[in-house]
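Hi, here's the filled form for the chain we discussed.

Project: internal
Contact: R.S.
Residues: 128
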Amino acid sequence: MNTGFMIITNNPLVKEKLGEDYHVEYEELSYEDTLKKVQKMIFQGYRLLTHPLSGSVKPNETPYKSVMLSETPEGLDAQAMQIIASAIQACGKFQFKSDLYKPQVYADFQLVDYTLISSALPSAESWR
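And the returned structure, exactly as it came back:
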């Protein structure tokens, strides 16, 4: 499946809904560790296709994050390196509170993240 892009996520709903049709790399990681995985890939030359802080949900409020990258390395991008570094730094500015929610709230956060990354699919598909 060569789509020209991949989705890095810690959201099981994204894996479930998009994993059969798209290149989805799912790992059970924290929000910040998911961003750090994306950072490593950017440093390897993968192109950042969606902003790591998309949406209006703060990093401390949700445990889920999905980010779209090019499927193959394309060279280093200084702007993408700065964007991901700033996103990781933003995680440290907030007190983590998503562990205080009731279990049913997590399904809502999964849906919000899934909706955000799904909204980027038409642009990514036309990009390839």
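Let me know if anything looks off before we file it.
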